[in-house]
C-alpha cells in the first residue's frame, strides 16, 4: 500500500481539503481516488506505468485524480489549466498517454482533440459510483509522475519521478520544515509544478494537515483568508510576494497593522521557484513580521537546499543541504572546488529517475559517478549556499570575467525609481557578451544615463549594464520566473 493511501486511512475523518465552500475528509478523498482508479483500470489488473494526463481544477478534483492514477498503477501527468492546445498535444504525444481526465469545464476544449488523437477522455464530475475493485500493489520504484520542464532553450522534457523519489522529497521537507497535523496551508500555486504539488499539497497531507485552495490569484482574497485566523503556513513565489507587498502598501495604516498582526501568528512563510530579491524579503518582513525562508530546488531534484527553519535565514542565500540530499560544487572540468563559484551538483533519493523517452538527455544530465548536473552556479560561504545564476542565462561571460546577473539585479533594484529588473548577456564581438538590463520603473523620470551613473557608483565598470530597456512588465512563466531568452529578443 502506498504511503498516501496508508496515511489517508489513518487520518480518516480529519479534514484534508477545503475547496470552494466544502470541506473534504481524508476518507472521502481516498474513497474518490479509489473510484477513479477502478474506472481507469477497467478490466486490467494494473495500468503498468501507463501515463495518464489530467487537467482538473485545483482542490478535491485535482488530488483525487492524482491519487486515483497512482492507485491504478499509472503515471500522473498534470497539465496546466491555461495550457494551449498545441502544448497539450505535445505532452500527449511525448508521453504517449491514452487517457485524459478533465474537469467538465474543459470538455469543450478537449473533446475534439482527444477524439482525433484516439485518447480516452474521462470527465471527473461523471465518475460513476462503481463497486470497489481489486487494485494493484504498486512497487515504490515504479514511475509515478511526469512533470515538464520550462523548455526555455529546447522543447520541454518530461521529468519522471518514482513513488520512492516523491516520498523521499516529502520526508525530507517534513523533517526540515517541521510539518505537523496542525498545519493549515493555502495553495495559490499552479499544480503542474513541483512547488505546489509536493511542498504545499503532498507534504501537508503526509502529516494529516489541511490544504485550502484559492482558485484564482487575488491579493484581497488571500488577505481575507489570512484574517480568518486558521492558516499558519504560506508558500509562494517572489512575484506573488511582490504583488502582495504592492497591495499592502496601498492600504490605510490601520489595515496594514491588522494584517501584520494576523501574519505574525503564522509559523512559517516560504519563497521559492525563483530567486528572492533581498529588497522583497526585507519589505515583506517589515509589513508582515515574517522573515521568509528561501530554498532551492528544481523539477529534477525536488527541494535540495534550504535556509533553516530554526536559525538564521540569510538574505540572498538559499541555505544548507536538506536531509538526505548531497550537494557539491564543481568547476568546468567536474573537479570539486572550495571557496570559489562552480556548478551545483546533487545526489540522493530525491533525484528524478530519467527524462521520459530521452535516453541520451538522461545520460548527459548525470556525471559518471551519479551526480545530477543542475546547470546552476553557486558559491559556499560559512555553510550557506548562494545562487549566482544559471550557467546558460545568468552567468555573463564578458571580457574574461564571469558576472552574476542576479548580483547586478540586486544592486539595480536599490535605485529609488526601479520597481523591478532583469539582467541578461547579449552577444558582442569584442567582449563576448555585454551586460544589458531590462527595467520596470515606478515612475517615468529615470533615464539610462541616470541609471548608469548610479550603477557606476555601486560597482566596477565592467559589471555595469551597457544597455537599458524600459518595459511595463517583464516576461515570466507560470511560476513567476523571468524568461530571459524571451527578454534577450526584445533588445534586438
Automatic annotation (TrEMBL):
Domain AMP-dependent synthetase/ligase: 4-356
Keywords tagged on the record: Ligase
Entry keyword annotation includes Ligase: yes
InterPro entries: AMP-bd_C (IPR025110), AMP-bd_C_sf (IPR045851), AMP-binding_CS (IPR020845), AMP-dep_synth/lig_dom (IPR000873), ANL_N_sf (IPR042099)
Organism superkingdom: Bacteria
Pfam families membership: AMP-binding (PF00501), AMP-binding_C (PF13193)
Gene3D superfamilies per UniProt: 3.30.300.30, N-terminal domain of ligase-like
Listed GO MF terms: ligase activity
Domain named AMP-binding enzyme C-terminal: residues: 407-481
Family: Belongs to the ATP-dependent AMP-binding enzyme family.
Protein name as catalogued: Long-chain fatty acid--CoA ligase
Organism from which the protein derives: Aquirufa beregesia
Amino acid at each position: 500500500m502506498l504511503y498516501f493511501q496508508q496515511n489517508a486511512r489513518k487520518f480518516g475523518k480529519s479534514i484534508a481539503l477545503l475547496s470552494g465552500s466544502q470541506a473534504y475528509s481524508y476518507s472521502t478523498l481516498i474513497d474518490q481516488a479509489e473510484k477513479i482508479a477502478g474506472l481507469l483500470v477497467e478490466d486490467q489488473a494494473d495500468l503498468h506505468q501507463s501515463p495518464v494526463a489530467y487537467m482538473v481544477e485545483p482542490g478535491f478534483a485535482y488530488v483525487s485524480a492524482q491519487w486515483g492514477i497512482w492507485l491504478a498503477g499509472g503515471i500522473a501527468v498534470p497539465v496546466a489549466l491555461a495550457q494551449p492546445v498545441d502544448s497539450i498535444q505535445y505532452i500527449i504525444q511525448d508521453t504517449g498517454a491514452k487517457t485524459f481526465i478533465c474537469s467538465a469545464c474543459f470538455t469543450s476544449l478537449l473533446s475534439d482533440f482527444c477524439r482525433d488523437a484516439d485518447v480516452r477522455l474521462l470527465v471527473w464530475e461523471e465518475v460513476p459510483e462503481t463497486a470497489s475493485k481489486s487494485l494493484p500493489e504498486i512497487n515504490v520504484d515504479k514511475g509515478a509522475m511526469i512533470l515538464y520542464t520550462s523548455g526555455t532553450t529546447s522543447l520541454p522534457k518530461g521529468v519522471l519521478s518514482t513513488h520512492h523519489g516523491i516520498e523521499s522529497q516529502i520526508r525530507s521537507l517534513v523533517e526540515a520544515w517541521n510539518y505537523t497535523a496542525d498545519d493549515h496551508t493555502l495553495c495559490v500555486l499552479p499544480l503542474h509544478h513541483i512547488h505546489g504539488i509536493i511542498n504545499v499539497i503532498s507534504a501537508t497531507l503526509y502529516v494529516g494537515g489541511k490544504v485550502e485552495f484559492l482558485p484564482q490569484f487575488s491579493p484581497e482574497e488571500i488577505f481575507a483568508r489570512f484574517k480568518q485566523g486558521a492558516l499558519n503556513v504560506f508558500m509562494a513565489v517572489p512575484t506573488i510576494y511582490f504583488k502582495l507587498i504592492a497591495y499592502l502598501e496601498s492600504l490605510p495604516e490601520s489595515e496594514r497593522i491588522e494584517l501584520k498582526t494576523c501574519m505574525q501568528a503564522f509559523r512559517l512563510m516560504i519563497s521559492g521557484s525563483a530567486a528572492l530579491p533581498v529588497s522583497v524579503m526585507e519589505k515583506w518582513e517589515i509589513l508582515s513580521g515574517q522573515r521568509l525562508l528561501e530554498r532551492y530546488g528544481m523539477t529534477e531534484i525536488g527541494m535540495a537546499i534550504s535556509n533553516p527553519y530554526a536559525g538564521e535565514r540569510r538574505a540572498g542565500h538559499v541555505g544548507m543541504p536538506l536531509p538526505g540530499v548531497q550537494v557539491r560544487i564543481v568547476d568546468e572540468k567536474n573537479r570539486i572546488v572550495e571557496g570559489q563559484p562552480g556548478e551545483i551538483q546533487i545526489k540522493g533519493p530525491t533525484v528524478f529517475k530519467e527524462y521520459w523517452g530521452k535516453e541520451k538527455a538522461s545520460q548527459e544530465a548525470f556525471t559518471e559517478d551519479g551526480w545530477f548536473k543542475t546547470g546552476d552556479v553557486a558559491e559556499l560561504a560559512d555553510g550557506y549556499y548562494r545562487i549566482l545564476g544559471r550557467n546558460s542565462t545568468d552567468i555573463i561571460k564578458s571580457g574574461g570575467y564571469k558576472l552574476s546577473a542576479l548580483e547586478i539585479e540586486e544592486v539595480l533594484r536599490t535605485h529609488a525609481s526601479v520597481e523591478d529588473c532583469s539582467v541578461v548577456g547579449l552577444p558582442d564581438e569584442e567582449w563576448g557578451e555585454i551586460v544589458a538590463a531590462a527595467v520596470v520603473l515606478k515612475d517615468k523620470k529615470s533615464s539610462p544615463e541616470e541609471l548608469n551613473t548610479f550603477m557606476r557608483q555601486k560597482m566596477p565598470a565592467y559589471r555595469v549594464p551597457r544597455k537599458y530597456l524600459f518595459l511595463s512588465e517583464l516576461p515570466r512563466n507560470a511560476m513567476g520566473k523571468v524568461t530571459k531568452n524571451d527578454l534577450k529578443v526584445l533588445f534586438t
